[in-house]
Design a protein that fits this description.
Elements (H helix, E strand, L loop, with lengths): L4 H23 L4 H5 L46 E2 L5 E2 L11 E6 L2 E6 L4 H14 L4 E5 L4 E4 L12 H4 L13 E11 L5 E15 L5 E7 L3 H14 L4 H9 L2 E2 L4 E6 L2 E6 L3 H14 L3 E6 L4 E5 L2 H6 L4 H5 L11 E9 L2 E7 L9 H14 L1
Parallel strand pairs: 3-10
Antiparallel strand pairs: 1-2, 3-4, 4-8, 5-6, 6-7, 7-8, 8-9, 11-12, 12-16, 13-14, 14-15, 15-16
Length: 380
């Protein structure tokens, strides 16, 4: 089928834009400070993104209708009442001597998460809904019962070079310009034993790769998550909660270390992990570790301490040169079944992590034990 002249021209414009964006990305530093700059993130200006052929391991999990968000209602008391900080901010968090802003950031490896003092997930959830929609995203998963909120794929228009051609002629056909990338964000919200709420943001990404001898066609491929972009959105969430830009950046750069080392315990042919922390903190850390390994969390049940996860062939390709390859070689069978990662209290300040079967018994299969090894590497 013959392509129209306009269609071919639009594809070439998009290809040119993709090439320029790549040059700009490669020439930049992409440090945390770069991403915290106000002009680095702009999803509001994006039109509806074209349909993507997404690898199975990056597709949004199918959430049962029993987890659908209830319709919005205004309570008699209105929105959550904000507290005044010593600095004069009206903040969503409740200020304390340890947290004068009513919140702080903790880090676990290259992951950061926000701790909002004195607030429950129910009180924070509507604020997060507003945050993502105000920033130009459509919510694809909005499940307060599981504490998971996922955006649809969107384009960061700030990545498109604002060159002389686009400023002049290009404005007439701006839709033909593309950064060649799409981003999706997953927000995980967890309550803690002391009445606070933990919030983490996980980035998933796709990029358009030009194909064919004349480079007039393309396909979408997965690319690595960007921890600095995740931190930038955490900073934006803190601003939504009442902090200034400078205060949010301060908390990001002064993130507190989160968590103790993890030990491996051997029991016959099975191995488990012991985390020297209470359940609520260990539960969050395991969730963050699963995100770091590019596992897809299909569902989770905090009451039972279960993460329902799987991984797939495309993930193995993404990680073939990294940590994943040490545990899953090219000769290893590529499992596609779902695994149950169980997080359960073992003592007052000790939590056990194991891969279990459908009956709750330790899974001693080779693949399950490799998952335990992978989690151990990530948690340490």
């Amino acid at each position: 089928m013959k392509r129209s002249a306009f269609s071919t021209h639009a594809t070439r414009l998009s290809a040119l834009s993709l090439g320029l964006a790549t040059v700009v990305a490669l020439s930049g530093c992409d440090t945390l400070n770069d991403w915290l700059a106000p002009d680095r993130v702009n999803y509001k200006a994006a039109e509806t993104a074209p349909a993507l052929t997404v690898p199975s391991d990056l597709s949004t999990a199918d959430i049962s209708q029993r987890y659908a968000a209830p319709p919005k209602v205004n309570s008699l008391g209105g929105g959550t009442e904000r507290a005044l900080t010593p600095a004069g901010n009206a903040t969503l968090g409740v200020p304390t001597a340890q947290d004068p802003y009513g919140m702080h950031v903790e880090s676990d490896g290259d992951r950061r998460f926000l701790v909002v003092d004195g607030r429950t997930p129910d009180q924070i959830w509507p604020q997060l809904q507003e945050f993502w929609t105000d920033n130009g995203f459509t919510l694809k998963t909005d499940a307060p019962a599981t504490g998971i909120m996922t955006t649809d794929w969107a384009e960061n228009r700030a990545n498109i070079p604002d060159d002389w051609f686009r400023k002049s002629i290009g404005k007439l056909v701006d839709f033909a310009y593309s950064s060649g990338t799409r981003d999706m964000f997953r927000t995980q919200v967890d309550r803690t034993a002391n009445g606070s709420t933990d919030i983490s943001v996980t980035h998933s990404a796709m990029e358009e790769v030009l194909t064919g001898q004349d480079k007039t066609s393309s396909r979408w491929e997965a690319r690595p998550r960007n921890p600095a972009l995740e931190a930038a959105f955490l900073a934006k969430i803190m601003e939504k909660f009442g902090l200034t830009d400078a205060q949010a950046k301060q908390l990001i750069t002064e993130a507190r270390p989160a968590g103790a080392k993890v030990a491996v315990e051997q029991s016959g042919s099975s191995s488990t992990l012991d985390i020297a922390e209470p359940f609520d903190r260990a539960w969050l850390r395991v969730g963050l570790a699963l995100d770091r390994t590019n596992f897809t969390v299909d569902n989770r049940d905090r009451e039972k301490g279960l993460y329902y996860v799987h991984y797939s062939d495309s993930m193995q390709e993404l990680k073939k040169d990294g940590l994943f390859s040490k545990f899953f070689s090219s000769n290893t069978p590529k499992p596609t079944r779902q695994f149950l990662v169980n997080v359960r209290p073992k003592a007052d300040s000790l939590t056990q992590v194991a891969v279990v079967d459908a009956n709750g018994q330790l899974d001693s299969s080779t693949d399950a034990q490799r998952i335990v090894s992978l989690l151990h590497a990530q948690l340490n």
